[in-house]
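dumping this here so i dont lose it
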């Protein structure tokens, strides 16, 4: 950069300092160009070369180092096309399986390259810079949305767990809706949309997605066409929004959500939330989504809340009917009266074992139907290979096989009030071999009455000593004083003409005495 020739009377240090000191650079230019000091005198005072002084006089500030032509690579030159081919092939490979500069250097050595690693590293960096894509800033009109899923850790009931969180953003206002789920699947994808549409008060006209397998079953051709899943088409048909999918590996096309997933994780999940259950967590996330509207982003004319009003005007209205976010599956109940859905088993009443069952699985519940009627309802299980038993489903079978009562798996962990244990001991003590079956018959009253009412009936039966199933059933019916009962003829005018004769009690006495035939 500096000329190393230094004339007599100056030093190399003085010459180099001129390039580092803008004040001296300006002073030299002023002395020569304004005051008329000769160049020879300046060179004699500073010891700089005439080419250096000419450069100072022709530039108002130090121009810096300028490479006039590219450096030659005599050793690496014959291998440039090979390096370029490797990088081009890597572009279509997973990021973790692409060549590093060191691996390229090792392969070049196998082909006869005798140069060093540094030259290869600089070449790879230079080629990578040339091939980096440049993107056009996009405009986002009101009424559009972008959707993505992210993952974060939370502490649920004292245990650390990984959850999936659904994010829908309206890019025009940057308003966001966040909801956490146990897993990313079709049902949670649906549920997230339903809740987000209700949260924003309408349906976005156009929604941008990444190529999630929940929505896209196959990418056709060069990535412009897609075969959509039935589940996604059901959602779209109900809400009538248009869709847009990013090109594969081009997540920048929905950069707002890509950034919001990161923003949500850092701001909604740091520090790690500590909650009792998912309901409490989602309550917090909803409140944070509302409070986030007070923020004003750089370059925006107003807060998120102000811009959201313009977004909402452009949204489509919500349909009159709510979308049923339930995946439907047809299957058959097993010999254990179990139905499998999403790798987990759910019980149905034993009378439906070996029968066709329709399962409707949602985010919260799994509902089971037989011949069009609901026969079972369970809370959704989110762990794999688990079983959900409803004890009442097996009581009819246990009534026929009372000996299996104490070893029945569906009844394990079933907690009943203490009065039920007392009732069982008394029944088995009084009826001997039939006491257990009679106790199961009492339990079957739960098929039609809530545990609260049956507990009161059992407690009363123990008090009066009437402990049979039929006696306990009598206590389940409400007691009404007949003296306060009346028959209202309103709406039954034809009954006004019915004459009811008073009873003749004497005839009844004659009947008892055998006088009437």
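and the seq i came up w/
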């Amino acid at each position: 950069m500096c000329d190393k020739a230094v004339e007599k009377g100056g030093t190399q240090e003085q010459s180099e300092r001129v390039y580092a000191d803008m004040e001296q650079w300006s002073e030299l230019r002023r002395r020569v160009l304004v005051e008329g000091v000769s160049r020879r005198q300046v060179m004699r005072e500073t010891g700089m070369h005439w080419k250096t002084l000419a450069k100072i006089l022709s530039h108002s500030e130090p121009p810096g180092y300028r490479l006039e032509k590219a450096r030659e690579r005599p050793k690496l030159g014959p291998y440039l096309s090979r390096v370029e081919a490797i990088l081009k092939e890597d572009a279509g490979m997973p990021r973790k399986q692409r060549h590093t500069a060191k691996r390229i250097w090792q392969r070049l050595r196998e082909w006869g390259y005798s140069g060093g690693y540094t030259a290869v590293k600089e070449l790879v960096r230079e080629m990578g810079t040339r091939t980096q894509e440049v993107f056009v800033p996009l405009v986002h009109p009101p009424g559009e949305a972008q959707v993505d899923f992210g993952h974060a850790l939370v502490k649920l009931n004292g245990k650390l767990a990984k959850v999936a969180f659904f994010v829908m953003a309206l890019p025009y206002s940057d308003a966001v809706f966040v909801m956490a789920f146990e897993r990313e699947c079709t049902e949670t994808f649906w549920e997230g949309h339903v809740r987000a549409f209700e949260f924003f008060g309408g349906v976005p006209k156009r929604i941008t997605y990444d190529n999630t397998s929940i929505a896209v079953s196959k990418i056709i051709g060069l990535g412009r066409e897609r075969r959509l899943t039935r589940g996604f088409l059901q959602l779209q048909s109900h809400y009538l929004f248009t869709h847009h999918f990013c090109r594969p590996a081009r997540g920048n096309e929905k950069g707002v959500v890509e950034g919001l997933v990161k923003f949500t994780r850092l701001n909604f999940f740091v520090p790690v939330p500590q909650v009792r259950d998912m309901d409490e967590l989602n309550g917090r996330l909803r409140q944070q989504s509302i409070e986030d509207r007070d923020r004003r982003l750089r370059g925006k004319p107003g807060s998120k809340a102000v811009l959201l009003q313009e977004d909402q005007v452009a949204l489509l209205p919500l349909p009159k009917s709510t979308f049923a976010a339930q995946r439907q599956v047809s299957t058959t109940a097993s010999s254990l009266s179990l139905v499998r859905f999403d790798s987990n088993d759910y019980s149905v009443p034993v009378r439906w074992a070996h029968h066709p069952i329709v399962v409707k699985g949602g985010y919260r519940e799994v509902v089971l139907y037989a011949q069009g009627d609901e026969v079972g309802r369970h809370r959704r299980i989110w762990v794999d290979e688990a079983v959900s038993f409803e004890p009442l489903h097996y009581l009819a079978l246990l009534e026929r096989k009372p000996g299996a009562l104490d070893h029945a798996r569906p009844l394990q962990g079933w907690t009943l009030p203490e009065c039920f244990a007392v009732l069982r001991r008394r029944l088995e003590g009084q009826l001997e071999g039939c006491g257990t079956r009679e106790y199961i018959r009492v339990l079957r009253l739960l098929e039609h009455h809530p545990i609260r009412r049956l507990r009161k009936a059992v407690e009363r039966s123990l008090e009066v000593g009437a402990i049979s199933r039929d006696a306990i059933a009598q206590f389940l019916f409400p007691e009404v004083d007949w003296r306060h009962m009346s028959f209202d003829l309103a709406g039954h005018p034809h009954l006004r003409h019915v004459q009811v004769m008073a009873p003749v009690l004497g005839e009844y006495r004659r009947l008892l005495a055998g006088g009437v035939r």
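The CA atoms of residues 18 and 24 lie 6 Å apart.
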